[in-house]
Structures are given as structure tokens and as C-alpha cells.
Amino acid sequence: MQGKQLTMLLGVLYGGAFLAGFNENLVNMGLIAIMDEFVIDSVTAQWLVTGFMIASTIIVMCMAFLYRRIKLRSLFFAASALTLAGSVLGLFSTNFAMLLVARIIQAVGSGVFIPLMMNTILAVTPKNKLGSYLSLGGCTITFGPAFAPVICGALVTNLGWRSIFIAPIAVMVLLGVLGFIYVKDLENSEAHLDAPSVTLSGVTLFALSFGLAEIAIDTVLGAVSLIIAVAAAVAFVARQLACQYPLIELSPMRRVSFWPAAVFALVSLMSTFSMSVLLPLYLEGACGITAFVAGVVMLIPVLCNAASTLISGRIMDKRGGWPLIPLGFASIAVGFTLMAIFASTYSIVAMFFASTLVFIGVGMSLAPSQTAGLRTLPPRENPFGVALMTTFTQIAACAGPSLYIGLMSSSENAALNSGALETAAVAQGFAVAVCFAAALALASAIGAIAFCRAALKRSNAASKHAQAQLPTEIALLMEKTPFVVNDTMPVGEVMHELVNRKVSGMPVVNDGGVPIGFISDGDIMRYLSECHPAITSSYSLMEAANSQTFDEKLKELVALPVSHIATERVVSISQDATLQEACTLLAQHKLKKVPVVQNGAIVGMLSRSDVIRYAMNNALAGIEE
To answer: Gene3D superfamilies attached here (predicted)?
Structure first.
């Protein structure tokens, strides 16, 4: 799949991922209004967020099965129908229980979209572009939380909290129409679902979220819940290792190149999910601003997160995770620390800049962490790696808000009991929560340094080993006696070389053999076209040469040194580069051939036809086997 079909398919799936991110944060700006209408506290209200995440996580854990068993088109429309149904029910909710059910139905549909997008990217895009495509996907997910505060804040302020469900209804209808046109089925494979594993995962997530929310309020109840969560988690892991068809294949977690990356993604996501709940509560509860203004304050930081995610993905493709991931966590730690310091000042400006640092840090650490883990997996483990990464995402979404709101609520209640004003109590609770987040981010930065340095050493060792074993594919495929011309050679002699050797261009080298340019028939034609606008093709050049009126400019041209008209910028590739890198270079620059260099000198010429022939021979050999 390629071209417009690929672009539109990914566009629709990116839209679904955007909506999933939007729905995760849908009720955040309306929590204060919901708490007032239904007379509930923040710990109860946060279950509209945590309950959504638990249901979504269970679906995510089933996605390795669903993606392989159900056709892409059917899976997309089932998710769309559930998301639409939950949104409609939420729009007409009359009590908290009805609203919670609506959020859970919405979560079942939304939980499909992000892993569906990630699995499809792995299936239809080249691996050397994986970081860019996943980062773009990360941006679309981030745009959901970016626009949710502003859109939902405006709706809550002007139309009431129920109106927030209008937005996902409208987006889902649009995506449904586009999906009907552009979402096509991919190849499926056999898969099985283990029901006890699904049950154990649900118990683990509920007990974990409940325990983290209660541990700072009711220590005994919270501790008992966390013990149940640990026991259920151990039973779940044992079940995955023992049963014939595990819900999640844990084999990627045995890889030292994968599991730390998953943990870093977890911490990074805990930061962003917690901020999406904590910051509105602080801005509305302590600073006294409206939901809409709070959403506007959060917009720029979250958009900065999207920008840093996109830029970081490109850096990751070129340079790897060092020092990108550690710097990201350092930025998160600094941002949270500044929030704790300025919480008691009620300064919206300070919160704006501090939250911007946090969100930029998340962009620098999240997608690169995911890419660092996923790119090391063999193709067979790709669906399991994606399932694990998205499961960690949902665990972060469950654990983060539960833990930090629990800490905030406990500290806030303690402050109120000591006689503090409500605004001061909210600020104190917020400061305690972000202090804990800062400590966690700092620990992650230290761990990321060790992880990235170790990954760099493994990569360098593997590269040296491969180079010592066999000549590179490029060295085997390239033409080892390349045609080159000296930079002092007259253009007339170069023309003879081009004609005699039946080539359209040759590298230009200096006396030391170092490439300094490239001369092609296009360069000659462009020079003549500047003097004679009628000469714009090979045919018109021949006609002009045969014409009695062809002026003497051509005589001047043939006497010029080739360096006068050659293209100065040389596109070349190292002999030690991979064939995949060569394909990327040829495609990006639209070249038919490229010089191969070693130690600064040209040692061969690699043509597009050589690469295509090699690929076709390998493909045919694989079919015959």
C-alpha cells in the first residue's frame, strides 16, 4: 500500500487516535461543574477519568488478538459505533452512574483506535521511517488533549458540562464517512483470547487505581487494595507464561532493549495524564478562573508537546535516544519543581511556563522511548510490543490521575482541617502532588542515561561486528570502477565521455580524487537554456546544433572547465551504509545513481537499477523457498 491510499488510510486512523486522546480528557474541564451538580468529591469524580482508562486498557490488552482476528475495516467501524453510542448517552446523562456508564462505553470504542493506528503503521510503513510515523501518531494523540481543554472549557462555560459530548459525536460522524471510503482490510492471522486473563487484568487495574487513590486518604483500605492488585498482577503474569494463548505475549519484556523503554514511556505518560487533570483543578480551584480560560492556558503547553514530539521523532531517526530521552525527563523534573515552588503564589504566568517545560519534556521522552523499544523487536513480536506499549499507556492513564489526585486530595483535606482557606488548601495539595511527580521524573532521567548509553554501546558493537564479518551490501552491488571526470577537464571532453560511456552524468573530482561536484546532461542543458530560452530539452538542443543560426555560445561552453557548470553539492553515500539507507537517499533526492565514498574518496557507483534488481532477486528467491 502506498501513495494516496496509504496517506488517507493513515489520516483516518490518525483522526481516530486524535479522538481517543480527546475523549480521555473530555470531562477534565467539567469536573468542577459535575462535582457541584451531583454533590461528589474529587476522588469520586476522578473515576470518570480512571474508569474510562480501566475499560480502555482492557481493550488495549485484547488488541493483539482483535487486530489479528478481526478485519481492519470491521474493527474500525465497531469502535466507531461504540464511541458514538457512549457519547450520545453522556449527552443525555441525568445522574453520576449513568454518566460513568457512558464513559465506559465510550472507552471501549476509543481504546481500539490508538493500538489500531500503531499496528497499522508497523504493517504498512518502512522501518527506517518508523520513528517519524509514530511521532506523527503521537502528535495526533497529543492534539486531542491539546484542544480538549479549550473546546470543552468553552462548552462548559457557555452551554454546561453535558455539551462536551457534542464534539466527539461530530468528529466520529466525520471519521465514519471517511473510513467508509478509505479504510481497507489488511491481512489477518489466527488468534485466540484467554478469558481468565481478561478478568485478571480488570481486577489488577481496578485494585491498582482504587488503592492509589485511597492510600493517602485511608491507608489501610488503600494498602489492602494495592496488595490485591499485586496478587492479581502476579497471577496474570503467571497465566500469560503458562497458557497456550496468552492475552499479551510477554516475550518482548525479556529484552533488555525493550522493557526499560516501556517503563520510561509509562513515567512520561503518567506526567502528561496527571497534568491534564491536576492543572485544571488548580487553575479553577485555586486561581479562580473559568474552565474556558483554564483551557486556553493549557493550549500552548500541549501544542508545544506536539511540536517537540514531532521534532524528537526526526532526531530519534537520525541520532537515536541519546541524549534526547534523558533531557526530556530532566525538563519534566524542572517543570514540576517550578510548579511546586510557585503554587502558593497563584501565578498563572508561572504555571504556564512551568507546564510548558513539562509538556515539552514529555514530547522529548515519550515517542523516542517507544521507538527505542519497538525498533529492536523482530517483526513477529511487533504486535505484542505495540500491545505492551499501549497497555503501559493505559496503565499510566489509570495510575497517574489516581495517585496524584489521591495525594492532592489528602494534602488538601489536611490543610482544610488545619484552618486554611480553600484556595490555599488546593494550592498546597497541588504542590505536594507535583513534588512527587518531580522526584519520579528525576529518577527516570538518571535511569534513561544508563539505558541510552547501553543502547549506544550495543549498537556500535553490533555495527563493528557486522562490518568485520562480511562486506556491506553496497560494496557488493556497486560498480567498482566508477566513471569520474577531473574538475579541470573542458566541458567538450566531458560531453564525449558522456556519449561514449552512455551515461547521463558523472562525479567531478579534484586531483586528490575527492568528489567536489556532479556534472550531468541536465547541467549542460540548463547552461544553454540560460543563453537560449528555446533550448529546454534534448530534442531542442539537437535542433539548435543542426541549425545554421545556432550562435557561438556552444563553442564557448565546450571550452569551459567542467567545474564552471557542474552542480557543486555532491550527494553521496558511505560504503558502510545499509541498503535501506541507500534506498532512502535515492528516493528522497530522486536520483538514478549515487557515488559511494570511503575515507572521502569515490570507490564506486550505486545505481537505482542495481538495488531494484537485487531486491527482486531476493523476493523471488523467498517465494521459491
So the answer is: CBS-domain (3.10.580.10), MFS general substrate transporter like domains (1.20.1250.20)
CB within 8 Å of 233: residues ≥ 6 apart: 204, 208
Residue labelled with grid coordinates 484556595: 423
Q: What is the pLDDT of residues 150-187, one digit of tens each?
A: 888 888 888 888 899 999 999 999 998 998 888 777 76
Domains located in the chain, CATH noted: 3-193+247-465 (1.20.1250.20), 476-624 (3.10.580.10)
Cβ atoms of residues 185 and 72 within 8 Å: yes
Angle between helices 3-24 and 166-182 (to 10 degrees): 160
Residue 466 scores a pLDDT above 80 = no
Q: What is the pLDDT of residue 545?
A: 42
Q: Show the cell assigned to 127.
A: 522501518
Q: Which residues pair with 605 in a beta bridge?
A: 479, 595
User: In this model, does residue 536 exceed pLDDT 50?
Assistant: no
The total number of residues shown for the chain amounts to 625
How is 516-554 classified by DSSP, letter by letter? EEEEEHHHHHHHHHHH-TT--SHHHHHHHHHSTT--THH
pLDDT tens per residue, range 368-383: 888 777 777 776 677 7
The 10s digit of each residue's pLDDT in 223-271 is 898 899 899 989 988 888 888 777 777 778 778 778 888 888 888 888 8
Confidence of residue 392 (pLDDT cuts 50, 70, 90): confident
Query: Which residues partner with 204 through β-bridges?
Result: none
Query: How far apart, in whole angstroms, are the C-alpha atoms of residue 508 and residue 195?
Result: 67
The C-alpha cell that represents 285 in the structure block: 480551584
Question: Strand, coil or helix: what is 483?
Answer: coil
How do residues 487-513 score in pLDDT, each as one tens digit? 778 888 888 877 777 777 778 877 666
Q: How would you list the strands of the sheet with 515-520, edge to edge?
A: 485-486, 505-509, 515-520
How many whole angstroms separate alpha carbon 475 and alpha carbon 483? Answer: 16
Q: In what side-by-side order are the strands of the sheet with 593-598?
A: 573-574, 593-598, 601-607
Query: Of 268, 52, 280, which Cα lies nearest the Cα of 152?
Result: 280
pTM above 0.85, yes or no: no
Looking at residue 468, its amino acid is: A
Cβ-contact 566, 542 below 8 angstroms: no
**H helix count then E strand count, the chain:** 24, 6
Helix (H) or strand (E) holding 515: strand 515-520
* Cβ burial, residue 44 (10 Å; 0-12/13-18/19+): middle
Which region holds residue 322: left if phi is over 0, alpha if psi is between -120 and 50, else beta?
Answer: beta
| Contact between residue 262 and residue 247 where contact means Cβ atoms under 8 Å apart | no
Instruction: Report the C-alpha gap between 25 and 48 in whole angstroms.
Output: 10
Does pLDDT of 532 surpass 60? Answer: no
Mean pLDDT score, 290-310: 80
Question: Are 153 and 29 a contacting pair, CB within 8 Å?
Answer: yes
